[in-house]
Amino acid sequence: MTYELFIGSRAYSSWSLRGWLLFERFGLTCKVRKVDFLEAGVAEQLEAVPPARTVPTLRMTDGTILWDSLAIAEELASRHPEAGHWPSDPTARAIARCLAAEMHSGFTALRSQCPMNLQAAYSEAPVRGDLQADLDRIEQIWDHARTSLRPKGPWLCGDYSIADAFFAPVAARIAGYGLPVSEAGQAYVAAHLADPAFRRWRAMGIAEGTDLPWYDRDYPLADWPGPEPIPARAVDAGPSINETCPYSGDPVTDYAEIAGRVIGFCNPFCRDKSVADPAAWPQLAPLIKTM
């Protein structure tokens, strides 16, 4: 039996992003089950996995149901100590746990005023007092981690950890709404936007094409501030340079022009997630390596 991870819309569900990163970023596999926010209530769609009522929900390999993202993180870390979910250094691990716990329970102004929307970016978003207080606190604890631990890379506690997975949607909000943070904060946000796992999640969210208008905000639109994607577009027909889909190995039925080359895929979703951000997908690298 494999892990089954129940998620919501990739473009909007920040908690689902956290749950998925706990697998994708740490070399663990799971079968993803999609809960459609437009189809019915989340609790109704999760009736087959009681007592879950929210996403992410995880069915463990032994059938145990976990319906809380921090519990999912801790249990995966316990069952897969080799994966490195938490830092091995005791001080770094303690700080990472505090960071993840505060993110799990706090920052309600940021959550409510700036819901995650990976299909849009805004400028001139208002920053009222309670939102500014959240941003100040976020920067305070980010700075505490970096000052205490002096990590060599971009992540808060050394190597990428649960703390970074939990703050990935925060980075998406700061970037997507153009929220004011320090130079160090901007660098940490940029690390998330450039992270291949985050980019794959966002590309799949764009490919899904789900529109949840209650997440929209009436602010001026801006370009997404992450890395500029390789030029790509869907096309109606081949021939393609490949005969089988780079993801599934199945015969190609759908096509895209990527960096001037026509590449084939086994279904529209494989095509569209590739068009959204070709460089995010290692499977495409051999086909576009001559760029």
TrEMBL record:
A Gene Ontology biological process term: L-phenylalanine catabolic process
SUPFAM superfamilies: GST C-terminal domain-like (SSF47616), Thioredoxin-like (SSF52833)
Keyword Transferase tagged: yes
One Gene Ontology MF term: maleylacetoacetate isomerase activity
Protein origin, superkingdom: Bacteria
UniProt key word Transferase: yes
One Pfam match: GST_N_2
InterPro entries for the chain: Glutathione-S-Trfase_C_sf (IPR036282), Glutathione_S-Trfase_N (IPR004045), Thioredoxin-like_sf (IPR036249)
Entry keywords, A to Z: Transferase
Coiled coil stretches, renumbered: none
CDD domains in UniProt: GST_C_3
GST N-terminal domain ranges (all copies): 3-84
PANTHER family given in the database record: MALEYLACETOACETATE ISOMERASE
Protein name (Swiss-Prot/TrEMBL): Glutathione S-transferase
Organism: Tropicimonas sediminicola
